[in-house]
Amino acid sequence: APSTSGLPTSCAPTYMLLALSAALASSAEAPVPDVHIHTPLLRSSKLSERVGGPVYLKMDALQPGGSFKARGIGRLCTHLVRERGVTRLVSSSCANAGMAVAVAGRALGVATTIVASDVDRGCRLLESFRRLGAEVLLEGKEWNDADARARALGDEPASAYVPMFDHPLIVDGHSSLVEELFSDRNGEPPGCIVLSVGGGGLLSGVCEGLKRVGWGSVPVYACQSERCNLLDRAMASGRTPTPTHIYSADGHDLGTRAVAQAALDCSAELDVRSLLVSDSATLAAVGEFLDDERVMVEPLCAVALAALYTRPELFRQHGSVVVVVCGGSLCSLDDVVAWRRRAERGSAATSDDDEPGHGHGES
């Protein structure tokens, strides 16, 4: 089968927003619609050859806004606007979650406010937010300050604060990914699912979806890079979240300080296997995936891909593999080149080596 191809994640808002807005407007009296789209499930010839069995890519890099966040955050935003009458959505994320809120706000026809801190001043997404019609405010020195301001704004009349991942409706929205897999595979479960974990929102949604469709026995590999190992550390310490600063492989602060409790609960209930991948392998996987599939993803998404590239023998036993290509907005061609050079040197950047202000990953 041919390998997949796709568009850079930055294209997603441009070519999908008008269709989304029309769909939402035409269904004002219908059940609450979704902001996300049904993404393709494509066989990767390169990864299939590497693993020695069929590997399928769940292409959520093609979601509006460029990441899987469109599912859960889109569902929560739609509920807030349609069911609660909210006219302003507020976020403290200067990354994928904030992009999902901005995309949802534009599609739903309501105001959006993104609160950034001083460390986010250089974030390239701030201008993207503005182009989507969002108001961008600066507050405090770090994410905690911006988040406090965002929560206060969300308490104002007709406004609502939108969390990055830890909300039941966000988990419910993310579960739609598995419902699509069930449909696309005609009910046949894959041998395993491989995904990236930051704060645990994607993992929580996938596990919820597995239970709903009767695939609760399917193993889930929860992949994390060395400095983004919130889930692994929490599981090792008795499944209690441990608040801490956490960084992605390229040295960016995720913003979140603890893994979602829902992710820990589903890890205890289902066959969730924590898997750590080196930061350098994660950075290398961004470039390798771009070469193989012509799709650009950010490092937090590439963790799952790095697991397949570097440890293919681990997945051979499962017969068929579905890997969630969750996407990401924080990536440019210049970034990919720089990350490849770091990987070739055999060491990833530390948080002090990077210019601040590129936001948070929050998978």
A few lines on this structure:
The protein is built from 15 helices and 10 strands. By secondary structure, the protein is α/β, with parallel strands linked by helices.
Describe this structure in words.
This protein has 363 residues and is an alpha/beta fold. 44% of the residues lie in helices and 13% in strands. A 6-stranded mixed β-sheet has the order 1-2-10-7-8-9, with helices on both faces. A 4-stranded parallel β-sheet has the order 5-4-3-6. Helix 9 links the parallel strand 7 and strand 8. It is globular. The N terminus and C terminus are likely disordered.
Q: How many E-type strands?
A: 10
Helical run tally? 15
Uncertain segments:
1-19, 21-30, 348-361
Helix content: 40-55%
> Main sheet: which strands, in order across?
1-2-10-7-8-9
Biggest sheet record: 6 strands, mixed
Query: Helix/strand/pairing class, anyone?
Result: alpha/beta
What descriptors fit this protein?
disordered N terminus, 15 helices, 6-stranded mixed β-sheet, alpha/beta, 13% strand, 4-stranded parallel β-sheet, disordered C terminus, 363 residues, 44% helix
Note the topology.
Layout: H1 12-26, E1 41-43, H2 45-51, E2 55-59, H3 69-84, E3 88-91, H4 96-108, E4 111-116, H5 125-131, E5 135-138, H6 143-154, E6 159-161, H7 168-174, H8 176-184, E7 192-196, H9 201-213, E8 220-225, H10 230-236, H11 261-269, E9 272-277, H12 279-293, H13 299-310, H14 312-316, E10 321-325, H15 333-345
Parallel strand pairs: 2-10, 3-4, 3-6, 4-5, 7-8, 7-10, 8-9
Antiparallel strand pairs: 1-2
